[in-house]
Amino acid sequence: MNRVCEMTGAEFPLFAFSHCRDVVAAVSKAGGFGVLGATRFSPDQLEEELAWIDAHVDGAPYGVDVLVPEVVDPRVRELADNKSRAAMIDPSYQGFVNSVLGEYGIAPEADLPILRERMGITPENGLALMEVAFRHPIRLIANALGIAPPAMIEEGKQRGVPVSALVGAKEHAIRQAEAGVDIIVAQGTEAGGHCGEVSTLVLIPEVVRELARAGHDIPVLAAGGIMTGGQMAGMMAAGAQGAWTGSIWLATPEAETSDAFREKMVAARSRDTVRSRSRTGKPARQLGTPWHAAWDAPEGPGTLPMPLMGMVSEPAFARIEREAAAGNAGARELVSYFVGQGVGLVEQVRSSRQVVQDFREEFIDAVSGLMAAMDTQ
Amino acid sequence: MNRVCEMTGAEFPLFAFSHCRDVVAAVSKAGGFGVLGATRFSPDQLEEELAWIDAHVDGAPYGVDVLVPEVVDPRVRELADNKSRAAMIDPSYQGFVNSVLGEYGIAPEADLPILRERMGITPENGLALMEVAFRHPIRLIANALGIAPPAMIEEGKQRGVPVSALVGAKEHAIRQAEAGVDIIVAQGTEAGGHCGEVSTLVLIPEVVRELARAGHDIPVLAAGGIMTGGQMAGMMAAGAQGAWTGSIWLATPEAETSDAFREKMVAARSRDTVRSRSRTGKPARQLGTPWHAAWDAPEGPGTLPMPLMGMVSEPAFARIEREAAAGNAGARELVSYFVGQGVGLVEQVRSSRQVVQDFREEFIDAVSGLMAAMDTQ
User: Fold this and answer.
1) Are B365 and B230 in contact (CB under 8 A)?
2) Chain B contact set for A377 (CB, 8 A)
3) Could you read off the pLDDT of B160-211 as tens digits, one per residue?
4) For a 10 Å CB count at each end of chain A, is N or C smaller?
């Protein structure tokens, strides 16, 4: 269809970011391009996931997304591992977590169950995951936040694997291009997860123009808010070469999301998300709940830097999910996850394969509609 | 081209909102559809403006946008006129204005120069302006904020003039449809002026679907961030029947904007706008300056409700413009106006006629590009 398809082997330039291998394989087999989000895995776990994909993807192209943070907060940079980092967290945060959860019928825990064992989002884990990814027949490696590290660029070039990176502002796109990135994913403020302030509709032409002006001939994928083939065609009309999507796959039966969260997705309006630091430590869009209201309130304790905030929040969200699954109605109110404003367009749970097919049909309908309008002008 | 063109007489469904009659006439004559923003005029002034347009538009269709506030803050609702309303403003606000302006080299004024004479954004002025508009051969009347009043709907139906209204959420679109509005303008958070929180890209399909589901067969125009024909085609791919634009016309030589502001527009990035209550009292996007930082800071005095905030802010912004025009560099830093994130796409000042022509060419290029991509699939 275009250059980004040639670079990656995708038949239809619909890139599906998912933490779930089943989604990745299903999308790639249906002609899209699955990208496994690897940040939550240990290197051994990622090895297992990718071996599964290799065995189930029927030779279709797929990619991996890792997160090697470029900037680490000075408060955590010096420390060698998460055990030392966890020791920095003031015990008052446990009290605050307990009070928020307590208000919704979840009993307090004596110890702050921070993530001492898992590495989480750290530079060392990001690089280890990258090494695992390069041992598999990936057709794309993505860096989720900040500038792609030189090791990724170099190894990508050696192995002929395009490197992509997410940006939320035109200046960042130029920095990525100068670092040697092959594909820019320009992500608008409506996106789930880490996001900037500028909308996808404005960001796409702004990034495309800025790259061209600086002499970088690099394709741009549009991310943020895209849940339909009509929106995908729309962002390609505005200058993108394809769509990078995330939230839509959370509403598939293959996804890692709970029933409780998928039900909330179907019910949610676009206005029900918040851009908050209260889960990872950086501004990330997610379904808004009283958790976010409590942490973001002026009288709250303030949020911690990455990765400390996640060490505090993730065990709490795991607990919330367990309690909600066990029928605790209060806990259900707190169920949340990273999701973009496009959640307002989710009307039902569909299989990943069906979502790709729907995108392809909607894309054709949208282009046909535009052609008809132009013909009668 | 489509139904919204049939309803309004527009040749190309590019709707141009402007406070400047020259822009309105130039756009309509070039095949787009100019809409005069009338809120700043007295009824007599509006009469004069529309007579000028009638004499210069060569019979091309145009419209008028008024603002009849649906909800008036209880603190100001009871008062009969702006003189009584102005009396409510605590003198400490004058001190704050003086301190902000003083930091940028603008000498303090002894009296708070509030807008005692001009009516501003009030229900009584909105309705009076509407009556003036209906005495002219308008092809559209728009209500800028809240539900279109029954008087507007009834008179529009009697005279065969379609009524449009701006919405920032799907629930508001349904309320407008139930009130009898003929065309919905769905405006995303990236828009200049009063705006909601959801991006244009998400809002368009959400509003289109919700109207269809509720059985309302009403065309939707996309507003917010649209500065190019490629973006316009994109929003039409996503379900809109045309584009409603505002910021792009501020960068034309015909516009009411100052040289200082137009220079700032060309220099600005998309991230340089803020959504702030500090000019009108309601969240409105504008070019961010130290004025906005000061009012929106936690230690600031807080903002006043509409229309009181405008009575305080507008004389200050008028003063800023005068000082900037006189060469005061500090004042230049404070120069601001309502503008959307699309300001990052403004690269030069172009005539209104040229902007319409560029939109038409970009539109055709975008659709041709999509067709080519689809053909090679």
Assistant:
1) yes
2) 1, 11-12
3) 999 999 999 999 999 999 999 999 999 999 999 999 999 999 999 999 999 9
4) C
Mean pLDDT of A206-222: 98
Cβ–Cβ below 8 Å for A376 and B234: no
Mean pLDDT of chain B, nearest integer: 93
ipTM, interface predicted TM-score of the complex: 0.94
Distance from C-alpha of A157 to C-alpha of A137, rounded to nearest angstrom: 14
Q: Could you tell me which residue, A21 or B376, shows the higher pLDDT?
A: A21
- CATH superfamily, region B3-72+119-255: Aldolase class I (3.20.20.70)
Are A227 and A251 in contact by the 8 Å Cβ rule? The answer is: no
Residues A17-69 pLDDT 10s: 999 999 999 999 999 999 999 988 999 999 999 999 999 999 999 999 998 77
> Percent of chain B at pLDDT above 70?
93
Angle between helices A352-375 and B352-375 (to 10 degrees): 130
> Which of chain A's residues have a Cβ under 8 Å away from the Cβ of B198?
190, 270-271, 341, 344
Is the separation of the CB atoms in B249 and B34 below 8 Å? no
Residues of A with Cβ-Cβ distance to B32 under 8 angstroms: none
pLDDT confidence of residue B96: 94
Distances (CA, A) of B18 to A234, B37, B196, B264, B297: 26, 5, 20, 19, 31
Pairing of strands A33-37, A163-167: unpaired
pLDDT in tens, B34-57: 999 998 899 999 999 999 999 999
Domain boundaries of chain A, sorted by first residue: 3-72+119-248, 82-118+257-334
- Helix axes A123-134 and A150-159, enclosed angle (nearest 10): 0
Contact B269 A169 (CB under 8 A): yes
> Between A and B, how many residue pairs show a Cβ–Cβ distance under 8 A?
181
> Which of these CATH numbers, 3.30.565.10, 3.20.20.70, 3.10.129.10, 1.10.357.30, describes A3-72+119-248?
3.20.20.70
The answer to whether the Cβ–Cβ distance between A238 and B224 falls below 8 Å is no
Find the helix or strand (DSSP H, E) in which B189 lies: none
Task: Read off the tokens for B42.
Answer: 């007295």
**Which residue in B has a C-alpha nearest to residue A375's C-alpha?**
B1
